[in-house]
Amino acid sequence: MFEFDHPTVLFYNSLSRRLDATTWNEPIRVDYGERLIHLLSTICPERILNAKETQASTWVYVVGDISYFSILLFLLGILNECYSGSYKSSLLFSWLSSQKIRRETVLMADNEDDDSQQRVNEGDYVVLKRGDIYKAVQIQKKKKTVFEKQWFFLDNAVGELYGTTFEVVSGGTLQPRKPKHVEHAADAKEAGTDNRHILDDGKSQKLTRDDIETLKEQGLKGQEIVQQLIENSTTFRDKTEFAQEKYIKKKKKKYENSVMVLRPSCRILAMMYHGREPGKICHLRYDTLAQMLTLGNIHAGSKVLVFETCAGLVLGAVMERMGGYGSVVQMYPGGGPVRAGVESFGFPPHFNETLHEFPIQHVNALLAGTLDTDAKDIDAGRSPTSEGQEKKVRMEEKRKKLAAAAVLLQGRNADGLVIASRFHPCPVLLGLIKFLAPSRPFVVYSQYKEPLIECYTKLREQGGAVSLRLTDSWIRHYQVLPNRTHPVLLMSGGGGYLLSGTTVTTDTPKVNTEPTSVEEPAAKRVKLEEETE
After folding, report:
1. C-alpha angle 203/234/181, rounded to 5°?
2. Where does the record say this protein resides (predicted)?
3. What span, in angstroms and rounded, lies between the C-alpha atoms of 39 and 132?
4. Which of 54, 243, 286, 399 is 20 to 30 A from residue 353's alpha carbon, by CA?
5. Assigned domain for 532 exists
6. What is the rounded radius of gyration, in angstroms, for the C-alpha atoms of the chain?
7. Is 278 helix (H, G, I), strand (E, B) or coil?
8. 181 shares its domain with 37
9. Where are the alpha helices (DSSP H) in 3-61?
10. Which has the closest alpha carbon to 230: 255, 197, 257?
11. pLDDT one-digit tens code per residue, 416-427
12. Is the predicted pLDDT of residue 223 greater than 60, yes or no?
C-alpha cells in the first residue's frame, strides 16, 4: 500500500521506479477530488477497487497496469491544475485515442469544469455577431454599444452562456431568444414556376416606410414585421420557391434585431478584421494566419520572436497558441508596441507575464554588444513636477522591459520567428534570423511576392537557412443549400504569400593543413566476353 500527499508526485515516482513492470497488483490510494475521481471511474471502472469520501477530500484505491494507469493519472493531474475547458481535452485526446478511450469521456470532464468559465462576466471581451458582421467589445454595464447602426446595452448578457443569441427590444435591452420552431413562410405560401413576369417597379409592397416604423413603435419583433411584409407583397406568391426564401432571408437580415455574443478566438477575430478593416492587418486572411502558426511551429513552452504591424492580431494568435507558457518577444517599430488586437482576445492576467517587447531600431546595437540598458532620462529626473515624476516612472518601466527582453535575445536561442508587416521584410528577416537557434523554423508573410523573392535570394546567397519555400494560399467559400450549391460570388482573390524555412548553423569546419594522401579511385573492371569458336 502506497500513500502520498500529491498524486503528481505519486505517479511520477512510481513510474520511474517501476517502469519495467507490466502489472501492479498492490492497490494505490488516489487523493485528489471528486471531479478527477469521477473521471477515473468513467474511464476505467474495472480498476477502481473502493471509493471513500472524507471531509477533506475523496479518494479511491485503484489497481492495474502501471505503464497505462500512471501515465494517465500523471497527465490528468497536471492538466487538471494547468488547463481547463476544451484546451485540456485537445491536449489529452491524441493520447487517449491511442488507448482506445472514447472522446466523450474527456468531454465529460470539460462539462464538469467551473460553469462560470462558459458564461459572460462583466469586464470580459466578447465578439458581437450579426450575419457575417463581427465587432469586438468589452462588457460594461450601463454603457451604450453601437453595432450596425443600432445601439443597445449589454447588461443582460452578463451571466448568459457564450453563443447565446439575443433580441434587441425597446429601450436597447437585450433579451435571450427562446429556441422555438418557426414554420417557414415559404412552405405556407404557394410558389410560382418562374420570375419572368415579375416587374421590379417598386409598387409591389403596400407597406410604406412610415408604416414599418409604426409597426416597430408598436413593439412588433423582426419576425412579425417580416410576416407583415410578406402578406402585403403582391408579387410574393408569384416568385419561385428559391426566390421566396431569398426574399425572406434578405428581409430578416434587415429587420430582425438579433445579435449573438461569442467568445473571442483567433479565427473569429481574424475574420472580423479581414471583413471590416483588412488594411489594418495587411490583408492577412485567417487561413493564411493558420498556416503561419503551423509553419512557425508555435507551441507552449517555446520562445518566439514576433514582428508584426497587424494591430496585434498575429501577436495574439501566437499567444493563444502558446497557452500562456513560454516567452513571446514582440519586436516593434516606432515609439511603442501596438496591441489593440491582443486586448480583444481577453487573455488571463498571467498571459502578460510571458509577453516581452523590444524596439526594432536597437537590434543592430544588441547584435554588436553596444546596447546600454542602464541609460536613464536625465531631463525627466531633474523635473520636480508630478508630470516629470510620472515620466520618470514610465521611463524606468520601459528600461526594465528593454533589459528583460535583451536578456532573452542575447542567448540567440529563440525557437521561432514570425514576421507580418507593411515594411519590406528583407532587412527585418536578415536581422532577426540571427537570434534563432539552429534547426528552428521561421515564416514571413507579405501581401506581395516580390519582397519575398528578394528574401529568398538573399538567404540562398548567404546561407544559414534550408527548406526554403515560397507559397501562396487560396480559399473558396461555397454556399451549400439543396439544389443551390455553388461558390460564393464575392470572395477574396488572394491570401498573400508566405516564405518559410529552417535555420542551420553557418560555422565553417576547420581546414586541416597537414598533407593528406589522396587515393585514386580503383580502375573500372572491364567485363571481357569470351570468344567462342
Report:
1. 125
2. Nucleus
3. 39
4. 286
5. no
6. 32
7. helix
8. no
9. 7-17, 34-43
10. 255
11. 999 999 999 999
12. yes
Q: At what angle do helices 266-276 and 286-295 cross, to 10 degrees?
A: 140
- CA 455 distance to own-chain centroid: 27
Place of cell 502558446: 322
Q: Are residues 259 and 271 in the same domain?
A: no
Q: Are residues 416 and 433 in the same domain?
A: yes
- What is the pLDDT, as a whole number, of residue 180? 56
* Of 356, 260, 369, 258, residue with least CA distance to 305: 356
CA gap 272, 529 in Å, rounded:
78
Report the CATH number that the domain containing residue 250 is assigned in CATH.
3.10.330.20
For 287-314, write each residue's pLDDT tens digit: 999 999 999 999 999 999 999 999 999 9
d(CA 117, CA 365): 45
Of 88, 95, 139, 132, the closest CA to residue 114 belongs to 88
Which pLDDT score is estimated for 29? 52
235 vs 341 pLDDT, higher one: 341
Contacts of 283 (CB under 8 A, 6+ apart): 274, 447, 496
Query: Does the pLDDT at position 380 exceed 80?
Result: no
DSSP letters spanning 200-212: -SS-SB---HHHH
Domain tally, the chain: 3
Name residue 168's beta-bridge partners. 174
Residue with cell 519555400: 469
- Residue 143 phi, psi dihedral angles, 5° rounding: -115, 130
Does the pLDDT of residue 434 top 50, yes or no? Answer: yes
Q: How far apart are CA 147 and CA 316, in angstroms?
A: 24
Residue 469 pLDDT > 70, yes or no?
yes
Expressed as residue numbers, the domain containing 407 is 266-503
Q: Are 295 and 408 in contact (CB under 8 A)?
A: no
Would you say residue 196 lies in a domain? yes
Which DSSP string corresponds to 449-503? Answer: SHHHHHHHHHHHHH--EEEEEEEE-----EE--TT--EE-SS--S---EEEEEEE
Residue 18 has pLDDT above 60, yes or no: no
Q: What is the CATH number of the domain that holds 444?
A: 3.40.50.150
For residues 333 and 358, is the Cβ–Cβ distance under 8 A? no
End-to-end, the C-alpha distance of the chain in Å comes to 91
Question: End of a domain among 76, 97, 113?
Answer: 113
Dihedral angle of Cα 438, 441, 445, 451, to the nearest 10 degrees: 40
CA pair distance 66, 68, nearest whole angstrom:
5
